[in-house]
Amino acid sequence: MKKLLIAAAMTSLITAASCSKSADTAPADDFDYTVDRFADIEVLRYKVPGFEDLSLNQKILVYYLQEAALWGRDILWDQNYAQNLPIRDMLEAVYTNYDGDKNDADYKAFETYLKQIWFGNGIHHHYSTDKFVPAFSRDFLSAQLAKLPEGAAPANAEELVEIIFNPTVDAKRVNQAQGADLVATSACNFYGDGVSQKEVEAYFDGIKKPGDLTPISYGLNTRIKKVDGKIVEEPYRLGGLYGEAIEHIVANLDSAAAYAENDAQRATIRSLIDFYTTGDLATFDKYSIEWAEDTASQVDFINGFIESYGDPLGMTGSWESIVNFKNLEASGRTEILSGNAQWFEDNSPVDSAFKKEKVKGISAKVITAAILAGDAYPATPIGINLPNANWIRAAHGSKSVTIENITQAYDEAAHGNGFNEEFVIDEPTAKLLDDYLFITDNLHTDLHECLGHGSGKLLPGVDPDGLKEHGSTIEEARADLFALYYLADPKMLEIGLLDNPEAYKAEYYKYILNGLMTQLMRIEPGKDVEEAHMRNRKIIAEWAYEHGKDAGVIELVNKDGKTFVKINDYEALRGLFGELLAEIQRIRSTGDYAAACEMVEKYGVKVDPTLHREVLDRYATLDIAPYKGFVNPVYTPVRDADGNITDITVDYTEEYPEQMMRYSRNYHPLR
Ligand code: ZN
What we know:
disordered N terminus; 47% helix; five-stranded mixed sheet; alpha+beta; three-stranded mixed sheet; 671 residues
């Protein structure tokens, strides 16, 4: 489940690349979504619609929570790599003091490099975790450092310059290569010098309690180091590691607590403060339970050591924060779906033996992000499903959210990027996508999350892990097919979620185009499709293509040497989705591992090299950035003569370098 974060972030890439807009939810305006473009990155802005409709109390609550978010930035930088903060200080000093020609090639390359490390929260790429390669000369940097005013260059500048320029030094932030000592070969700062993977594993094996049904998240908030040859955990807490940053986070959480919407939320904030104060992981679990159970508050937040993708052993959480509030109107959508969960289950095209007699829709909500911070900034997920501890999820539930102002920003920014012109077969289809893809894509996600995953049942005695390595691909295919099948159902109009019986065709076209062709742009030539969500989309698209071939349901047509997807019979395509859903549900319900293998191997893995090359070449001509991220809005309190806050204003005009430099100046507790 926790994978949803990454999976969602990857989906966003695809979504972002397809041009779409809902006629009724995305009013045309002249808001400039694109802020910056460099290397493989595009930086966008996002709007915070509805902020002005919050009560003054809620606005002040958001204000203090976003301050608490911004104060954590340097924790993540230091977690990512021990020399990140000194390197950033050094480069920002050069950036601020530079008085030479700003069109100089070395300077331009230097500026790009600085923008890259801002985006990566350190000297490694946020996604590949490879160290950035500077395109300016070492002499250029040394000359600039020599020119800095007295005391502005760090004493160990030479050492830092060597780190930047020597490709063999700390080349990979998170090494996942099988067979290597993942701790010793990863540059991240979760482990001290001389600590080996074996020692870390032995240490945790020694302290974990066998048979514990409610285990704490071992190692979540500690740095491991060696003292006198022994493994020791150094906790992140007030008075401990990162204590100077945590002090500011706690002070702002404390201010926020005074404006909490209700007692439950106040208690939740207090528990988080307790956790930061003590570093005690049982307190973190208490906080997580209170947080998961608070579904009444409109304003909500994530703040802490959450996801562990940055740790090669997957234990320590990278610091992150997202402050948000519920989008009441859009959340109505997921509530309607959950309210009709039984109808969807009863009417699905799967064998009745595999249906649930009593189905409960998962409560999901649509949120508006107000600030992104730490590991969720500038690159951010579009969906989140927390908490991560499995026993808490089972006993106390979890929150599944879609961040709609972020998906909308991706969507708006994709307008005019040339994707439709290059890959969509004709004008009418492009128009269909323009009008209905945004809403149907969101509905597809809602159906997938609220109903798809929760539908169906295993036959008695079937091992839930019986599909082994293909389990997640089959499970994602099941949820996607459930969503695709129902998107075209008259029920969607009846319950008021769509207003046009043709709307579903937008999602159908995009889904097939993506599954057969455009998602291949993320695969290197000669490689197989590996990631579960990508495999699932490929299986669905290729299975439907093959099984509808004789009837001409989907065609691949050649126009001027380019391949295009043409869908001739959308209704028949829906029928095919229903058929495949029945088969995938059968595989899952009966644990038919052999059939899962065949399905995945036949449709989900191998790439046609000619079509792949064509997609890569056509994609390359568009200059669409593979990775996107965001600058935040700026929140400013308005005060009366007595100093009382009377309003909070939101400003969207800050540029990317200005925001980064301001954060470095104003939120730099770990000096
Ligand atoms: Zn899913």
